Amino acid sequence: MKTLVTGAAGFIGMHSALRLLERGDTVVGIDDLNAYYSPRLKQDRLAQLTSRPGFSFERLDVADAPGLHALFERESFDRVLHLAAQAGVRHSIDHALDYGRANLGGFLNLIERCRHARVRHLVYASSSSVYGGNRKLPFAEDDRVDTPLNLYAATKRANELMAQAYCHLYRLPATGLRLFTAYGPWGRPDMAYWLFTQAILEGRPIDVYAGGQMSRDFTYIDDVVDAIVGVLDRPPEAARAQLPHRVLNVGNQRPEPLAALIECIERATGCTAQRRMRPMQDSDVADTCADVQQLAALTGLTPRTPLPLGVERFVAWYRGWRGEGRPTAVP
């Protein structure tokens, strides 16, 4: 199998590409290596891939329609794993146009190329944020998703609708994955677990919103990648009587308050956090929790990594990466 992985220098993209390479797949990775967060981290992630047999990389922005067209003309892909996007909820408040370009324009460019190339399966990253203001927990795939609380969530829901339209018109098999707060080694520096760990180790205070009582369904990266690869191998049927499109939750089923995350980091670092209490922000969701029955029925997978263990692994990786000044091995 030859798989295109967009956002290959990203957190989930790097881990997913590694897993595919380890089992013998051929992977072509693309990424624009933008400066939303440290390009050094992205280059360090990419270095984990470039030495592996079966991997090739091209610096390319999915919003570059001619460049994407040329790539698909040169390469023939069996599957596409689309993880490239402008991430971040709070960033979307002041940088709205970045989301329109990458998450809407970029997604349209990609899905257009997939339908012309007749790829066997497109798997793309959606987000738990599409559930917005829903109060019923756990979130299930058939819940209403028409109350987004931020622009990022709105673009991810738009991706789902765009994919559904393409699957209806062109019978393109596609699966959207509503990812719930992925974390772990090589993670994203804009996420709470990274920001808390960095500040605690440096003796700086951390901002704790809503008294630390907001809860998240923290999902360790290995569990996320298990789900991605399991789904990638199982495209929806493209029979004429059935729409070959679905969305699936990928979460841990164990929501934890931010206060619990902070306590895990304190134990893993051996340091005490200095907490600054802040009010909840309008763009934030109070709680998330994934109903993953559909994912389990399809793949037989269930999450297996408890938060304390996942945080311990992240902190150990972070200390090595920060202290040595060079990338550490993937755990």
Explained architecture:
With 331 residues, the protein is of the alpha/beta class. Helix content is 42%, strand content 17%. The protein has a seven-stranded parallel β-sheet, sandwiched between helices. It has a two-stranded parallel sheet with strand order 7-10. Strand 5, helix 6 and strand 6 form a beta-alpha-beta unit. Helix 9 packs across helix 11. The protein is globular and about 55 Å long. The two termini are 25 Å apart.
What's the overall geometry?
globular
Question: How much helical structure, as a percent, in the residues?
Answer: 40-55%
What portion of the residues fall into strands of 2 or more residues? 15-25%
Whole-number radius of gyration? 19 Å
| Separation, N- and C-terminal Cα atoms | 25 Å
Number of helices: 11
The overall pLDDT average reads 93
- The tally of strands reads 13
Order of helices and strands: EHEHEHEHHEHEEHEEEHEEHEHH
| Spatial ordering of strands, largest sheet | 3-2-1-4-5-6-11
Low-confidence residue ranges: 324-331
